[in-house]
Amino acid sequence: IVKGSAPEISEGAATDFIRAFPGGAKAKQKRADRKKADQDLLDHVAGDASIELKDEANKNRPSPVEGPAQLFIMGAPRSGGTLLHAALSRHDGIATDGDATPVLADLAAERGLAFFDRASEEDLADLGRAYRRRHHARAVAPQKENASFAIDAALENVWWLGAAAQYLEAEAPDFKALIIRRDPKAVAFSCYKAAFANGERAWADKPEDLGARLHAIRKLEDHWLKTMPDRVKLVEYEKLISNPQKVLNDVVAWLGLEACELCLTPNETEVALTSYGAVEARAPPFHTQSLAAWKRYEKQLKRDVFPHLVDKK
User: What is the DSSP-derived secondary structure letter of residue 74?
Assistant: First the structure.
């Protein structure tokens, strides 16, 4: 196993655009302060080679990772995940760094899907520790070491929740997951018109691919809600917008935490949000402007996009 080398992080100054938003300046400073920590993390990830299953005698087992339990926020893109993330980030009992780094997907890519066919319970526990070590290095700041939960907001985790459950069962079985769900017509319209960066989510460019992807995500969501009802909770975007206090109080109570008025001001979070929905999350909280935006283009969407939202199987 060869130890890799990490790329250098540029020392160039960060941009000032987030100063335009409440809490943005503090978020910028936090990211600047974390530059060295990020370089250390890159070095760590580059050197964190795959677990070698064939040589049990020489395997160095990682030690258990102390700290908050995992709180996954997942669902389809453009469903309100960033808003929910920003709101919960205001709670003292919940840690996050704002980034939605796909740690679970990265680990799966490194190990390969065949890992799950041959991995022992001990191997899975090792992977759970590797995941928590990477995630906590970014998400858990010193002032929140005693938090109850640490948010992992990579929406793509909806594909990997089953794997995460295997990783964490022996290592940290008290994890929870929130599925944020929105009217599929609104999601389809928002994804279809979005210019995702660097070709990300190219499936959103073609109505047939968009429909297939949203169907797959919905089926996975339903599966996790059915098979892990004590671990997974559904949050409906429209209800979050119309009655944020009730919905958020219900969520934090489910997490075993006390209600927090600060959660009602997600636009004031000091977390450096970087997802596509960050601008909307910094807008006046829980606005209704985008709820029915798709209706202005209903004729065209009914012709070109919405037919692909019908499950034809």
Answer: E
